[in-house]
Design a protein that fits this description.
Blueprint (H helix, E strand, L loop, with lengths): L12 H9 L5 H14 L6 E3 L2 H17 L9 E5 L26 H8 L3 E6 L33 H8 L5 E6 L5 H7 L2 E4 L19 E6 L2 H11 L30 E5 L9 H16 L3 E5 L7 H16 L18 H12 L2 H14 L5 H21 L5 E5 L15 H6 L5 H6 L3 E8 L5 E8 L4 H14 L12
Parallel strand pairs: 2-3, 7-8, 7-9
Antiparallel strand pairs: 1-3, 4-6, 5-6, 5-10, 9-11, 10-11
Helix pairs in contact: 2-3, 5-6, 7-15, 9-11, 9-12
The structure holds glutamine (GLN).
C-alpha cells in the first residue's frame, strides 16, 4: 500500500527504504514530511540545526539516483546526526558554547559513509557538551525532553538522538557511546541502539571526548534498522583513524532471522544487585523469560569488577578528555574571549567562557590524575583494572555467547532530578561502563515499562566483532514481542 503523507513517520527504516526504492514515495516528499515534524517539535529541544535547503537538495539528488537505478541501500532515508559529528553543511557544536556556530570544512567519516549509502541528512541533534553526561542537561543549548514524559530526561549524552527517534521526528539517528551514551538514552526513550566493537566505526570527524572509548553507532526503532545503518557506517579508515579496525565492512543484517535456539545468555549476578530498581528488574526478568521461551539458555555468570568500572572510567575518560580538549584554545577552533590582557589570559578567558561546569570538572580531574606524583596512583592503577575488567569478560564468554542485563539502574529520572550532584549521574552508568572499558559491542532494546509508564531497556553485550549475533538476538526478541512498536504520548 502506498503510504499517505501522514503516516510516513510510522515506517521503519527498512520499510521506508523499500517504499523509496519502489518509487511509492519520493525522497523529497519524505524529507519534507520529516522536516515539517522536526520544525513543529522545536520545544522538544532535540534538534540544534535544521537546514531545509541542504536537506531538500540532498533529497533531490537521492531521487535522481533512484530514478537512474544507481541508488544506495538507504537511498532517500532521512537520518539526523548527533551534533558530535562534524558536518560541512550544518553547524557542528558538540553541545558546547565553545563551538557555537562552528562550520567544519569536512564531514565525519560516519556521515560521509551514510551519505554514500544514500542517506539524506535531516539535521543535527542535541547532546551533552562534548558527550559528557547522562541526562543531556550538560548541553550549552538547553536540555531535551523525553517524549514519554516531558518532565523527564531522555538520557544522555545522545539525548537528542533518542528523543527524536522515539517521537518519530526522524526514522533513525546517529549517536556516540563512550560510557553508555547510545545504550542509556535508547533505554530511557524506548528505542533500539547499538555501540559496535571499539574500532568498527571510524572516529574521524567525531569531536573527541575519550579517544580509547569513543564509538559511533546507530539509534532507531528496531534491531533490523540498526543493522542496516551499522552496515553503512562501519569499515576500516586507516588513513584517518589509526584505531579503526582492519576488518572489512560487514552486512550486519546477514544473521537476522537465524534461530536463537540454544543461545547461551550469561546473566551477571553483579548486574542484578541492590542498586537495581524493582521496576527495571521486573521488566528485564520478563525479557529473560521470553528469551528462554525462544529457546535460549540462561547461564549465571560473574563480572566481579563491575563496581570498579565507575572509578576506573571516571579516571580514564577525564584524563583523555583533558588532553583532547586542550585544542580549544581560542586560536584553532570556535570561541575566543573578547576581553583579555595577554596570550595566557586569552586562553584562560576563552576556556572559562566557552566550557560548561561539567567539562571544566572533567578537565580538572583529568589533569590531576595525569599529573606527576598522582599518575601512578590513579591513572596507571585505572589502566591495570581496565585490563582486568576486560579479562573478566573473556572468562565469562567461555560460558556464554552473549551477556544480558539492565542498561541503567532506573527508568529516566526527572529533568533537574540529580540537581548539582554529578556523582548521582556517574553512579547510574554502572551497567554500561564495563563493556565500554573492554571495547565490546553492546546494545539496548526496549523490553517493557516501569514506574510512570517509562520505557525500560535491556542490554545485550557480545564479544568483540559479534554485532551480527547481538543484532539477531535483539531481532528475534522483537519478532516475538511488540515493546519496540509502542508510541510515546508526545508526538509532533
Ligand atoms: N555518562 C557517561 C559520561 O558522562 C558516558 C557518556 C558517553 O558515553 N559519551 O561520561
Amino acid at each position: 500500500m502506498t503510504p499517505t503523507h501522514t503516516d510516513l513517520h510510522d515506517l521503519t527504516v527498512a520499510e521506508l527504504a523499500s517504499q523509496l526504492r519502489a518509487r511509492k514515495v519520493s525522497a523529497v516528499e519524505t524529507a519534507q514530511h520529516f522536516l515539517a515534524r522536526a520544525h513543529a517539535a522545536k520545544d522538544s529541544g532535540a534538534f540544534l540545526d535544521l537546514s531545509d535547503d541542504v536537506t531538500l537538495a540532498q533529497a533531490r539528488a537521492a531521487d535522481a539516483r533512484l530514478a537512474s537505478g544507481t541508488a544506495g541501500a538507504l537511498e532517500g532515508v532521512p537520518v539526523a546526526h548527533k551534533d558530535i559529528f562534524v558536518t560541512r553543511d550544518f553547524v557542528s557544536t558538540a553541545g558546547s558554547k565553545m563551538l557555537a556556530g562552528y562550520r567544519s570544512p569536512f564531514d565525519a567519516t560516519v556521515v560521509s559513509r551514510l551519505a554514500d549509502a544514500g542517506v539524506v541528512t535531516l539535521g543535527k541533534l542535541n547532546c551533552d557538551e562534548f558527550a559528557m553526561g547522562s541526562a543531556n542537561e550538560n548541553s550549552a543549548f538547553g536540555p531535551v525532553k523525553n517524549p514519554w514524559d516531558v518532565t523527564r530526561t531522555p538520557g544522555g549524552s545522545s539525548g537528542g538522538s533518542a528523543a527524536a527517534v522515539a517521537a518519530r521526528l526522524t526514522p533513525a539517528a546517529t549517536g556516540t557511546d563512550t560510557g553508555g551514551s547510545i545504550r542509556q538514552p535508547a533505554s530511557f526513550c524506548g528505542i533500539t541502539g547499538i555501540k559496535p566493537t571499539y574500532g568498527r566505526a571510524s572516529r574521524y570527524g567525531m569531536v573527541a571526548f575519550a579517544s580509547s572509548l569513543d564509538q559511533a553507532g546507530p539509534m532507531a526503532r528496531t534491531a533490523q534498522d540498526c543493522a542496516l545503518l551499522l552496515s553503512a557506517m562501519c569499515g576500516p579508515d586507516p588513513d584517518r583513524d589509526s584505531t579503526s579496525l582492519d576488518v572489512p565492512a560487514e552486512d550486519f543484517t546477514r544473521q537476522l532471522g537465524d534461530s536463537i535456539d540454544g543461545l547461551r545468555i550469561g546473566v551477571p549476578a553483579e548486574f542484578f544487585g541492590e542498586g537495581l530498581a524493582d521496576d527495571v528488574r521486573a521488566a528485564v526478568d520478563a525479557a529473560l523469560a521470553q528469551y528462554q521461551a525462544l529457546g535460549a539458555k540462561l547461564v549465571p555468570i560473574s563480572l566481579p569488577r563491575t563496581e570498579l568500572s565507575i572509578p576506573v572510567y571516571y579516571i580514564i575518560a577525564p584524563a583523555e578528555a583533558s588532553s583532547n580538549l586542550s585544542r580549544f584554545d581560542g586560536v584553532k577552533f570556535g570561541h575566543r574571549a573578547h576581553h583579555y590582557t595577554d596570550l595566557n589570559d586569552m586562553y584562560r578567558q576563552t576556556r572559562a567562557e566557552g566550557f560548561g561546569d561539567e567539562v571544566k570538572r572533567r578537565i580538572m580531574i583529568g589533569t590531576y590524575v595525569l599529573s606527576h606524583g598522582y599518575y601512578d596512583a590513579y591513572y596507571l592503577q585505572a589502566q591495570k583494572i581496565r585490563r582486568m575488567i576486560a579479562d573478566d569478560f573473556q572468562q565469562a564468554f567461555k560460558q556464554c555467547d552473549v551477556i544480558a542485563g539492565p542498561v541503567a539502574p532506573t527508568v529516566a529520572w526527572a529533568l533537574g532530578g540529580h540537581g548539582n550532584d554529578p556523582l548521582a549521574d556517574y553512579l547510574a552508568d554502572i551497567f554500561t561502563l564495563p563493556a565500554s572499558l573492554a571495547g565490546l559491542p553492546g546494545m539496548s532494546l526496549p523490553v517493557g515499562f516501569g514506574a510512570g509508564h517509562m520505557p525500560v531497556g535491556m542490554q545485550l553485550i557480545g564479544n568483540h566483532l559479534s554485532e551480527s549475533r547481538l543484532l539477531n538476538a535483539a531481532h528475534c526478541f522483537q519478532q516475538a514481542t511488540d515493546w519496540h512498536t509502542a508510541q510515546p504520548p508526545v508526538r509532533a
